[in-house]
Design a protein that fits this description.
alpha+beta, rod-shaped
Length: 95
C-alpha cells in the first residue's frame, strides 16, 4: 500500500449469467467454446477446436434425413400410382 493507491483482491464467489443457444459460441475464462443441447435437459459445452467435427456430424444427419424423406416421398407416390392403376383396370369398358 502506498499514498497514491492500494491493491484490492476479491476472492468471494460470483455469479455470471451467459445466454446459451444451439451451436452458439461462448467465452469462459478467456477460452472459446460452443454449446450443444442433446436433449431438453442437458447442455454440452465443447471446445471450439471440435466445432468442425460437430458441423460434419450435423451435415451427415441432414443428408440422412433428406434421403429418408425422399424414400418416403417415392413410396407414397408409388402407392398412389398403384391404387390409381388398379382402379382404372377395373373400370367398365364402353363399347
Amino acid at each position: 500500500m502506498s499514498d497514491s493507491g492500494a491493491t484490492l483482491e476479491w476472492f468471494a464467489p460470483r455469479e455470471n449469467t451467459i445466454e446459451l443457444s444451439e451451436g452458439g459460441n461462448i467465452t469462459l475464462n478467456e477460452q472459446r467454446f460452443f454449446t450443444h443441447f442433446p436433449d431438453h435437459h442437458t447442455v454440452q459445452i465443447v471446445p471450439i477446436q471440435q466445432y468442425d467435427q460437430y458441423q460434419e456430424t450435423l451435415d451427415q444427419q441432414d443428408y440422412f434425413h433428406e434421403r429418408k424423406n425422399g424414400i418416403w416421398g417415392v413410396s407414397i407416390l408409388s402407392g398412389i400410382a398403384a391404387v390409381l392403376m388398379l382402379g382404372m383396370a377395373y373400370m367398365p369398358v364402353r363399347g
